[in-house]
Amino acid sequence: MRRRNKFRDHKLEARLFRSRAVFAFICIVFLAGLLVLNIYCLQVTQHEYYQTRSNSNRIKIIPVPPTRGLIYDRNGIILAENVPVFSLELVPEKIENISETIEKLRGIIDISQEQEERFKKNLKRARRFSSIPLLDNLNEEQVARFSVNRYKYPGVDVIATLKRHYPYADILTHSLGYVARLNQSDLNRLITAGKDHNYKATRNIGKIGIERYYEDVLHGKVGYQEVEVNSRGRVIRTLKYVPPVSGQDITLNIDVKLQSYIHKLLGGRKGAAVVVDPHDNGVLAMVSSPSYDPNAFVGGISNHDYKALLTNRNRPLINRATLGTYSPGSTIKPFIAVAALKERSITPRTKVRSVGAWRVPNSSTRAFRDWLKWGHGNVDVTQSIEQSVNTFFYQIAYDMGIDSLSNWMMMFGFGESTGIDIFEETSANMPTRAWKRNRFNKPWYIGDTIPIGIGQGYWTATPIQIANATSILVNNGRKKPLQLLDSLSNQNDSTKNKLAESPPIQGVPSNYWELARYGMYLVNHGKNGTSRTVFRNALYKSAGKSGTSQVFGLAENEEYDADNTPEHLRDLALFTGFAPYEEPEIVVTVILENAGGGSFNSAPIVKKIFDQVLIK
């Protein structure tokens, strides 16, 4: 077999090698150029973008909550404070299985199902890297148990925080209010107001009362720290720290000793009491009874306890002083007297013969009765206030008419909120023709007007409105805003709370105001005064007006029998007054639900409050 010889072309191979080498070199140069270009883009063109991304992995911004401002009474006694507590908290970002971790924690610390559910609810709203409390108020034993086993639970730690505490418990609840956990409704409100950035590290927010009304003042300004972390999320060092600004402290007009005294006087009975300084309308006490302990809400009240409050037939959650609406009864007779005198429906010398009942002239409708069935005889305006003569004020209501009556009583603050510095207030109802048309689609009748003259019918008012109207009377028509707040303070200075007065009731001669006040003086010290027995031995002179508001109507010849009437149908007892008579220092309004007559039930409480303030 013949072998074939091969001959190699070295020149061709050399050319082929060179061409391949050139191509490879061009590729290398091209790829190197792309690499350099990419490096340039990373290091120069997009340096800030990638630097930020790098820092976001390495640097964390941790918000630092501000310390909430404290609340004091007028004498410097602390009413709301911040106390240190320990809580067990979890950081979701550092925990692989949260449910499994919680189950393991149950082996060393008791965790209820409700606490776990609350934690998971908060987990849905929180950021993954934020710390979320599972248990609050850990005791020393619980802290010790966890500390020994801490290494077993990465992402879980015991954190020392400040918790709001109310040392006077249920005595001040409806005035102070309370703070509680931020919920979605709170967050939505903050977002709408553009304030959510200031609550990044905050867990609680004012819910009601002073705590909510002055939330912006008390909360302060959030701070932050910029920290560097390693790949495991542990803090290596702090790069920057901007301290939070603490909330301002506030001082109230409230006298907590007086508040506590009145709270004890009411003794859990359904009712309310308001004490006002007529010089500036500062609220010295505002008690609603029964009440509840606000501390239960701070850490999160249990469903069982909250349901018990909601279903309590005595309704402790309601602030009766500002939200309780009642027929004001005869407490309004001095205010109507001023209006009638100014409108010339009566004069200081006008006398009406009271025979125990009054009928609309030229009408066969049922009679409107007086509380004294045989009547009071011939009485003038001061005697009618002294003896609380219904027939005198029936005649006034008839002569003035609903339009004039409503207009005048609105000048005294009825039918509108007083503007007191809490959000929980109702305007109640000062009836008008338009109101009845809108409410019942019926016209206003003369029979609707007559009971308005004695604070009955469609007229409702709150205790705070009656106290405000009494202060207006004491001040000859001047209208000063009711205020719980006295002053704001921080580390550097204190700012007194000053609000502009509303336009006064003008054009009323001073002697008309004095006649109404003198009628109230006779209530307490006149020979026929409805409350003379209560104030007989007082060491000072005072003025007042009782009121008894019916819960249900009586037939024309039917008598009211408190002893045989179920408690929930018994009359409401009201009393408003001021003392001393010549130079008033306080105005007091008290209402007791289902207690009976105001002279026998509310007046003694008012007298004791006068004694507490005036007798040193």
From TrEMBL:
Keywords from the named record? Carboxypeptidase, Cell inner membrane, Cell membrane, Cell shape, Cell wall biogenesis/degradation, Hydrolase, Membrane, Peptidoglycan synthesis, Protease, Transmembrane, Transmembrane helix
Question: What does UniProt give as GO cellular component?
Answer: plasma membrane
What does it catalyze? Preferential cleavage: (Ac)2-L-Lys-D-Ala-|-D-Ala. Also transpeptidation of peptidyl-alanyl moieties that are N-acyl substituents of D-alanine
- The UniProt transmembrane annotation reads 21-40
Cite the EC number. Answer: 3.4.16.4
Alphabetized GO MF terms: penicillin binding; peptidoglycan L,D-transpeptidase activity; serine-type D-Ala-D-Ala carboxypeptidase activity
Penicillin-binding protein transpeptidase domain boundaries: 271-610
Subcellular location as annotated: Cell inner membrane; Cell membrane; Membrane
Gene3D superfamilies membership: DD-peptidase/beta-lactamase superfamily, Penicillin-binding protein 2a (Domain 2), Penicillin-binding protein 2a, domain 3
The Penicillin-binding protein dimerisation domain is annotated at 64-239
Biological or metabolic pathway of the protein: Cell wall biogenesis; peptidoglycan biosynthesis
Q: Which residues form the active site?
A: S330 (acyl-ester intermediate)
Q: Name one GO biological process term.
A: proteolysis
PANTHER family hit by this protein = PEPTIDOGLYCAN D,D-TRANSPEPTIDASE, PEPTIDOGLYCAN D,D-TRANSPEPTIDASE MRDA
Q: What is this protein called?
A: Peptidoglycan D,D-transpeptidase MrdA
Q: Which organism is it from?
A: Vibrio chagasii
